[in-house]
Each structure stands twice: as C-alpha cells, then as structure tokens.
Amino acid sequence: MKFIDNISLFLYKFLFHPKHKKWRYGILILMLTLISINTILDFRLINAGMTLFHLILYALFTLSTYLIAVYIVVIILVPKFLLTQKEGTFMAYLFLSIFLLITIQFISEYSLFKFYGVEKNFNSSLINPFVKDLIQFISFFLLTLIAFSGVLLTIFLKQWTVTNLYSTQIEKKYAQTKVNQLKEQLNPDFLFKTLARIRTIEQENPNKATSMVLTLSHLLRYQLYDCNRKLVFLSSEIQFLTNYLNLEKLYNDRLKYEISTGQTSYPVRVPPLIFMPFVQQIINDSFHLNHSAERTIYIGFSLKNNTLTFQCQVNSPIFQKDDSYHTSIERLKLLYNDTYRLEFIEPKNNTHTGIKLQINV
C-alpha cells in the first residue's frame, strides 16, 4: 500500500510540479520523434533507395507539424477557449487543427512516395485506393484525437487540482477574513471621540445631539447585521459612508466631503465595507502632517458595462502609500481574484491624490 502511495505521489509531482516541466516536454518531444520516424519507415521507400538524409529531413518535417499542432492546441486554444468555458469553440478549432495536421502529413507523404516512384497503396481488387486512403485518414484523425485527449486530460487534472487547492485556501482564510472585516470597521478611537463630541453638543443643542446618536446607531446596526451578508446594496454602502463622514465632521470641522453616485441608479450589489477602509485611511493620511489645514474628500461612483468604479480623492498632496492598505488588498484578492483593478493616484503639482478601484458587479 505504501509503495502504491509513493508511486501516486511521484506521478502527481511529475505531472504537475513546475520543476519537472522540462522532463515532461522532453518525453513528449521524444514520443513525437519516434512517431515521426515510424511513419516513414516503409520498406518500399527503403528498397527504392531512400537516403538517410531524406529520412532525417522528412522525420524533422513530420515532427515539426506535430509540435506546431501541440503548441496551437495546448498554448493557444486551451487557455483562450477551454479554460474560459467556451467548449464548443474549442472543439471546433481542435478538430480543424487535427484535420489540417493530418492533411499536411498525407500530402507530404504522397509527395515523398511520388518522388521515389513508389505506389503508396498496394494493388488490391478488394478495396478502392480512394476508399483505403479515406479509411486511413479517418483512422489517423481518430488516433491523433485520442492522443490530444490524453494531453488535455492531464491539463484538466492539473486545473482541477489547482482549483481545489485554491478553494481550500479560500476556506482557510475565510475566518481570518472575517477578523479583517472587523478591523476595517469603525475603530474604538472614532467611537470614543464621537460619543464625547455628542455629549458636548448635547448641552448646547439637544436636537442635534439626538440626531447624531441616531446616525451613530445606524452605523453600528449596519455593521452588526447588514455586514453579515455576502453582498449588500451599493446604496446602503453609500449611506453608510455618508453617515460616517457626517460623524467625522463632528470633531473635525476642517473636513468637508462630496459624494457623487453617477449612473448607479439600478440595484448594484457589492461586498459590505469594501470601500470604508480606503476612505478612513485617506482621511487619516490627509491630516497626518498638517492638522490645521482644510481638507475636502471627493468620493465618486460610476457604472459602465458591469464595472463599478470607486474613486476617493483628497485635495492634498499628502498621501502615504504604505502597508495600511495590505488587509484591504488581500480581501480584494480573495473576493475578486485578479479581476479587480486598484490604482494609487500620486500627487502631482499639489493636485488631488487618492485611489481608484474597479470591480465587476
């Protein structure tokens, strides 16, 4: 049993591990070389005086046709169509590639027999030469298709293994991601400052204080309940950001903000608190070196071709691109893999700085 497990482990590493790639390609080329030589080792051509030079030349030509076909199918067609779930288009191109491969080899073989003055088909009254060629063509086509199917099966197994490993990693990181979500929510320092400010305002303007308490309760309720869902409406996220910025202005009257929703009227759904950490960090960075300056936060949302664009900028050249965004970027990678786009807008001539995020919805 242990011997079988060792063999299975060896085969798995040999077929899928990157360090064995050269060996895999080497064995494939060796097999194709033997097949190429076998196709021209015909005793009639040898008896007709076929030279070693022509033998090697034709073997190299046949080998090159196989290698080109493998390259087209494995390197071009598989990533472009098969792995993108366009199976019908892939099969059509696969059949066409094999058809062209067999046709080129049949034409070259016929030319070689004709060059040496040898009849390609044995004289037979039972089978018509055209029918025999057709049967041989179909046989070679099916054999080549089976050979390519073996290569494709290996690719499928590798893709399936990678997908399962990625899913396992996602599950392992899910619990940690939930913790990261908590880190991206309102920090205790913000809550303490807000409550202290509300207490001060309560003595001067009880109605305003009551309104602020209600706004704070909306924020906390959103975090405790709505954020447990995988997706929330974009309008809810925008309302959350608005409430948060209103409370920020309570103890920082130098902060102003503008929010533009653009063409996002229909119900777009996004992961909860996906934008919040960027807004928080940009506000912190903008006041980091100059606490007395006035800052205006510009937040914009736009939708085009199922791509949601979020921008958060500040009228300040002070913008620190550091590890503060590491947790947010890791979360984006888990949620969107490589389909999201994040840009850091660097300061130029004291203009706006910030971030631009694009995600699929």
Keywords:
alpha+beta, two-stranded antiparallel ribbon, 7 strands, Heat Shock Protein 90, 11% strand, single chain
Number of helices: 11
Radius of gyration: 33 Å
Largest sheet: 5 strands, mixed
Tally of domains: 2
In terms of DSSP E residues, the strand content is 5-15%
User: Which sequence of strands runs across the widest sheet?
Assistant: 2-4-5-7-6
> How far apart lie the N and C ends?
49 Å
Secondary-structure element sequence? Answer: HHHHHHHHEHEEHEEHEE
Low-confidence stretches: none
Query: Structural class per helix/strand content?
Result: alpha+beta
Shape: rod-shaped
Overall pLDDT, averaged? 77
Helicity level: 55-70%
- The count of DSSP E runs of length 2 or more, i.e. the number of strands, is 7
Description:
- The protein is an alpha+beta fold.
- It folds into 2 domains: 2-180, no CATH class; 184-360, Heat Shock Protein 90 (2-Layer Sandwich).
- Helix content is 64%, strand content 11%.
- It has 11 helices and 7 strands.
- It has a 5-stranded mixed β-sheet, with helices on one face. The protein has a two-stranded antiparallel sheet with strand order 1-3.
- Helix 4 packs antiparallel against helix 5, helix 7 (188-204) runs antiparallel to helix 8 and helix 8 (206-224) packs across helix 9 (234-251).
- The longest helix is centred in the middle third of the chain and has 55 residues, at 129-183.
- The chain is rod-shaped, with a radius of gyration of 33 Å.
- The model has no long low-confidence stretch (mean pLDDT 77).
